[in-house]
Design a protein that fits this description.
The structure is a single chain. The chain has helices spanning 2-18, 27-40, 57-69, 74-103, 107-119, 121-127, 133-152, 157-171, 177-183, 194-223, 236-241, 259-262, 286-295, 314-321, 323-343, 350-369, 385-397, 401-421, 432-448, 454-462, 479-483. It is mainly alpha-helical and 484 residues long. Helix 1 runs antiparallel to helix 4 and helix 4 (74-103) runs antiparallel to helix 5. The longest helix is centred in the first third of the chain and has 30 residues, at 74-103. It is globular and about 60 Å long.
């Protein structure tokens, strides 16, 4: 396990150093949020920028790093901003491995689960991005060992405080932390709780509220909602609508087109490679888009756009290898759900089942209300990565010995190939031409959001964009026209 952790650390460090700063979902928006805190010494209004609706835990940490590291130059700053998510993810993998061994998983199963936690593509992509996604998901995963201990003994005060702090930090970083925060209540939902159990419940709730409460009280006071969103405001609304194929239908949750495995990308349909506006209609299926996002670079953040055409072999290889570990995960989830029903909520992994059920229900509601392909990114489900490791081990443990050995070997192959594909420079150098386009787009978004500091963040991290001459009569806020 030490060697695996060392390999994961080296992999993350290399990607943090070698990948351009603006590569990733909303990287410039998150960077501008952090820079605004660093420059202005205050948290901006939740509706004032691109990413400012997020709770500010990661951004406060990033702002402190920005002020400390900025004198060392943009390269050091780029690595520093990626470090919190990468380090938290490394620690979460170690904690999950230990928890799986305590649950009785074999050494080979626990090690394979940890390798998948580190190297499944969606996790790798997020860890290498400047943003709060990996940090929030790692905090949710760090709560799981404490949750499992609480489920076995709800009077464990240390586990209660640990679960509350980790869940509170996840919730103070991203709204999806609510899934693990809600799961913390299940170990205490029993009649024979006793005085010690009530003390542990109070400690868990107070620890979580102390960490996450201020962010939500502030959001409520400033916007009238504890969960403000900027997606209905410009220029965010136009950017999201650019990825709407049609209105959402109930059937979008019930079908899985197998072309998803052959073409795991939102960018292309058959016979027309190269056009970014050429959307893949199979990705209207939510299970298809989620699976492709788990096992490939669906939105072409790291794999060049030319590699997303039908004739390319890389996407089908990686998504095909992901079928075995995904099947084991789903089998483990089904077994855990069966035990939860039989035991009336007292099974050892019942909190994780409740967490997964809440996550899937809220994800379905969110994607129904927001039909954009961007709203169904698999990375939104990353807080379930720790629970997925437990379910994977449960599914593998239910197999006969020889079948388990074969399934673990196939799962290790999937993790190894994914690690190779998403090591910066192993197959593809960064697309610098596209990154210049990203820099120009984000600079103009900064113009449309005065005071967001997005343009300043882009200039610091990526250098001044090579901006072509623009008609001075064009309104800077006319984002939709420029994007089209």
């Amino acid at each position: 396990m030490g060697l695996l952790a060392l390999a994961a650390a080296a992999h993350s460090a290399w990607n943090a150093w070698s990948l351009p700063a603006l590569l990733g979902y909303d990287a410039a928006g998150h960077a501008g949020y952090a820079l605004a805190i660093a420059r202005d010494a205050r948290v901006p209004h939740p509706l004032s920028g691109w990413s400012t609706f997020h709770p500010p835990a990661w951004h406060l940490l990033a702002a402190a790093l920005w002020r400390a590291v900025e004198p060392l130059g943009p390269d050091a700053l780029r690595v520093a901003l990626r470090a919190p998510g990468a380090l938290a993810w490394l620690a979460a993998g170690l904690a999950l491995h230990r928890a799986l061994r305590r649950l009785g998983a074999g050494a080979d199963t626990a090690w394979t689960a940890a390798a998948l936690f580190y190297f499944v593509p969606v996790n790798q992509l997020a860890v290498a991005m400047i943003g709060n996604e990996a940090f929030a998901a790692a905090c949710a995963a760090l709560a799981i060992p404490c949750l499992l201990r609480l489920q076995a003994e709800p009077r464990d005060l240390r586990a209660a405080v640990g679960a509350g702090l980790a869940a509170g930090l996840a919730l103070a970083t991203k709204y999806s932390g609510a899934w693990v925060a809600a799961a913390c209540a299940l170990p205490f939902a029993r009649r024979e709780l006793g005085r010690g159990g009530r003390r542990a419940l109070a400690a868990c709730a107070l620890a979580g509220a102390a960490v996450a409460g201020p962010a939500y009280v502030r959001a409520l006071a400033e916007t009238g909602s504890p969960f403000p969103m900027t997606r209905t405001r410009e220029p965010m609304r136009s950017a999201e609508e650019n990825l709407v194929l049609r209105e959402r239908r109930a059937s979008d949750y019930l079908w899985f087109p197998f072309s998803c495995l052959r073409r795991p990308s939102v960018q292309h349909v058959a016979g027309r490679p190269g056009a970014f506006s050429n959307r893949n209609p199979a990705m209207q299926s939510v299970p298809c888009l989620v699976y492709a996002g788990l096992w490939y670079d669906t939105f072409a953040q790291r794999v060049p756009i030319e590699q997303h055409a039908d004739a390319q072999w890389l996407g089908p290889l990686v998504t095909g290898l992901g079928l075995v570990p995904t099947a084991l995960l789903l089998a483990g989830l089904a077994l855990a759900a069966r035990d939860l029903v039989k035991s009336r909520g007292r099974s050892r992994d019942a909190p994780l089942v409740a967490m997964a059920a809440l996550a899937m229900a809220s994800f379905a509601v969110f994607t129904w209300r927001a039909p954009s392909l961007a709203a169904a990114k698999a990375s939104y489900l990353m807080p379930l990565a720790g629970a997925a490791a437990v379910f994977f081990a449960r599914g593998a443990g239910a197999l006969p010995r020889r079948a388990r050995a074969a399934a673990l070997a196939a799962s290790l192959a999937a993790a190894g190939v994914a690690a190779w594909v998403f090591t910066s420079g192993a197959l593809f150098p960064p697309d610098l031409a596209r990154l210049q386009v990203e820099a120009r787009v984000w600079s103009r978004i900064g113009e449309a959001l005065p005071g967001s500091r997005i343009g300043e963040a882009v200039a610091i991290l990526a250098g001044p964009p090579d901006t072509p001459e623009r008609d001075p009569r064009e309104p800077s806020a006319n984002f939709e026209k420029r994007m089209r």
